[in-house]
Amino acid sequence: MQHATETIRHSLAPATQGYVLGVDIGGTNLRLALASRKGRIVSRLCTTTVGTRNPEDVLRQIVDGADIMLQEQGLGRQHLRCIGAGAPGITDVDNGVVVATSYLFGWKDVPLARLLEEALHVPAAIDNDVNLATLAEGWAGTAKGETDFVFLAVGTGIGAGIMLRGALLRGKDWLAGEIGYMVVPGTSEAPDAPGIPGALERVSGGEGIRTVWGEHCSARGMKQSPEVTTAEIFELARNGDEFSQSIVEQCATPLAYAIHNMALVLNVPLVVMGGSVGTNPMYLSAVRAALQRRSHRSTPVLGASGLDRDAQLIGAVRLAMSKLADRQR
Amino acid sequence: MQHATETIRHSLAPATQGYVLGVDIGGTNLRLALASRKGRIVSRLCTTTVGTRNPEDVLRQIVDGADIMLQEQGLGRQHLRCIGAGAPGITDVDNGVVVATSYLFGWKDVPLARLLEEALHVPAAIDNDVNLATLAEGWAGTAKGETDFVFLAVGTGIGAGIMLRGALLRGKDWLAGEIGYMVVPGTSEAPDAPGIPGALERVSGGEGIRTVWGEHCSARGMKQSPEVTTAEIFELARNGDEFSQSIVEQCATPLAYAIHNMALVLNVPLVVMGGSVGTNPMYLSAVRAALQRRSHRSTPVLGASGLDRDAQLIGAVRLAMSKLADRQR
């Protein structure tokens, strides 16, 4: 009885405060976090989305995951107050709709916020994954306390989250920050085609770096491993392989030009590089060096994300906290 | 007596409303406008700034001009309520200071708002000329009623005024929109040097177009007139001269890339081209064609300024009206 009473006491105290759920729907993983309304994460859960990418399946996984985490904490559904969720694509945050995701994921006009609200009976807010990472960087990351900065997600693709005067810039069609399609010296001038990555991504994104590496191998008649990863190219460069170093520099330069161009438009003091490719120290320093060669009075400080792959999930928690605070204002 | 009485009556009625002064300090001309507080311009004045570019001389010209216009309307200094002024350079609008202008004009840290307030004993607000033209376009021009658009000033140099959610984006160091320094395919990758126009301006600005024209003439061993103007090149192209047409296209393409890049960052629905070069129909249509070749879901509509060289002056009047309204709120 003593134990039971204590458990009740323990869960009654936070229950008056309530909890929020952060959801990061990714191309391969679904990550969930249960957090206090002040943002302290008390439980996490990660499952795969491979093979279960349709909205109904993902929704079921979210509901099941939320129940598991609540149960683990001795809490019930009634303790959940709000949800923040991110999806990899174009999101209409006003209407809570995922307008489109990459062809891999295949979502189109999914009313994610409404689906979450109907499933869990609490308010839900959504945004795209890059914007959520941007929220997280400004709240708890490298850009903590900054009202004006850009978060640059560099993985397979390249996208930017733009924070101006403390608010995310979204753009007319929710497309602000799609800089993977920039044209700069070193990118192709060929028009973009549907379903094909943008001109900048094709050179400076993770897949682009592999492609450029492969092309140079072929051109030199070099034997190449078709299985080489971007991480391995960076590792070769770090170990002094001059060929790999030249590839890294060649791919970093267009990205530096894109940052230069973006900074001319926005004049933000800080750009935070994130994503699996963007946070690689070899790549970061190559981009930084190229940016310095371009030096202009608008040139921003180039930092690295410290939140790593947690950025989106932390941002989702932050989004839920803001939504809850707004509703109780 | 009858006449005199009528004059008094006439000037007493508007006097209760008061007037605002718009000031456009340009590289060659100083333009002034006296307007009702609702923005109806009742008098204009234009003088030269050549040879009288130091702040004291310009200030004296402004004061003299204001007095002349007031007098013409049968008004006195007491009828002036507010001043809005623009200068060609970097302006700190919070502190009313012209931080720097081009080397031609040579101003550095001039407290223009304070100087105007001391000289005319009414509140004054300042901004840079491109931002003022942007205000004007959104108030009475091609972007009327739009809360999100870019005004692109293309004259000798190239600069952008960025309106987001109905407010001008200024940037950390008042440098937002300096896109004349963008690097895109077709611009030099050489670092920018102090006092030298930016990479984009050197190809796509008025002086740049002349330079490219001259370089191609030399390369082809053609005899060229060193006195050819950008307007003449456009005219030649319009009259079917294929060489000039190819130059116009070559210079328009980098500008279209810069607009494409900027639109990817901001996702604004409308870009308004202004300035003596930017409003030339030949150039505008060449830029538009190049932009369409780049087509992306972010591609904005490309319009032409209808305010022409009045844009800055009208924007200065608008700035004065806003300042006055803010103070009386």
UniProtKB/TrEMBL annotation, chains A, B:
The molecule here is called: ROK family protein
Q: Which Pfam families match?
A: ROK
| Annotated Gene3D superfamilies | 3.30.420.40
Q: Please name the InterPro entries in this protein's record.
A: ATPase_NBD, ROK
Record-stated family: Belongs to the ROK (NagC/XylR) family.
